[in-house]
Amino acid sequence: MQPSHSPTALKRVTVLISGRGSNLIALYEHRKGYEITCVISNNRDAKGVSWARNLEIPCRILERSEYQSLKAFKSALLEAVIESDPQIVCLAGLMVVLQPEFVNRFKGQLINIHPSLLPKFPGLDTHERVLAAREVEHGASVHFVSEGIDTGAIIAQVAVPVCCDSDTAETLAARVLDCEHRLYPWVVSKLSSGEISLGADSRVAISEDARAQAKLAGFRLNC
Ligand code: GRF
């Protein structure tokens, strides 16, 4: 029997978004070893959806209001992702907490980007909370997704300084977002080449080459 995906072909990536889609654009613009074969959104008005449609990237919209229950909506979301036949699933600003069934189905293939140096500041409003806590550094993390909110093995992070006296949540968010746009495509390309993977022990495995590249790029690896 033929394998469904050739090992040398570009990896198929499905990206899930709810809004602006700047990480989706960065993933597209810096794609290496992968292609974005589907965008799925729970918000038909998401800017990222119009952007993807302009590029004729297949889009699926599933809004909560179209389903009788949250459970039915989340099951449909999982079905849509399965139908898109991805090898990697990227959460990029998706404002939906995924079911354990989803997380388990795509274990080792499902990653998220979060605007903080996890495990610090999971959840929303990270920039405001970082300023309120007078942290001296902040940043972004890409991690494999587990069942909690912004939990799972951390793959790589990028840190930025916080100027507590002059930063606002907006200036800080912009500084972090710039870094997100470098970090996320890099991680996805390394996942695509197999240089980064999730081991059976739930630890992140990273090749020596990728480690050296991360060091040059200023990314932190937590393993
Ligand atoms: C980013 O800050 C990302 O880290 C977080 O949600 C935001 C999405 O922004 N998970 P965008 O839609 O990619 O512009």
Structure overview:
The chain is of the alpha/beta class and about 220 residues long. It contains 7 helices and 9 strands, in the order βαβαβαβαβαββαββα. It has helices spanning about 20-30, 45-55, 70-85, 100-105, 125-130, 170-195, 210-215; strands spanning about 10-15, 35-40, 60, 90, 110-115, 135-145, 155-160, 195-200, 205. Strands 3-2-1-4-5-6-7 form a 7-stranded mixed β-sheet, sandwiched between helices. Strands 8-9 form a two-stranded antiparallel sheet. Helix 4 (about 100-105) links the parallel strand 4 and strand 5 (about 110-115). The longest helix has 25 residues, at about 170-195. The protein is globular, with a radius of gyration of 17 Å. The chain starts with 10 loop residues before the first strand and ends in a 6-residue tail after the last helix. The model has no long low-confidence stretch (mean pLDDT about 95). The structure holds 5-O-phosphono-beta-D-ribofuranosylamine (GRF). 5-O-phosphono-beta-D-ribofuranosylamine (GRF) binds next to helix 1, strand 5 and helix 6.
List keywords for this structure.
binds 5-O-phosphono-beta-D-ribofuranosylamine; alpha/beta; 7 helices; globular; 223 residues; two-stranded antiparallel ribbon
Strand order of the largest sheet: 3-2-1-4-5-6-7
Which class of secondary structure composition applies to the elements? alpha/beta
**What is the averaged pLDDT score?**
96
Cα separation of the termini? 38 Å
Write down the oligomeric state.
single chain
Main sheet record: 7 strands, mixed
What is the succession of H and E elements?
EHEHEHEHEHEEHEEH
Task: Give the % helix.
Answer: 25-40%
What percent strand?
A: 15-25%
Number of helices: 7
Principal-axis shape equals globular
What is the strand tally?
Answer: 9
Contiguous runs where pLDDT drops below 50 for at least 5 residues: none
Q: Write out the distinct hetero groups bound to the structure.
A: 5-O-phosphono-beta-D-ribofuranosylamine
Radius of gyration over alpha carbons?
A: 17 Å
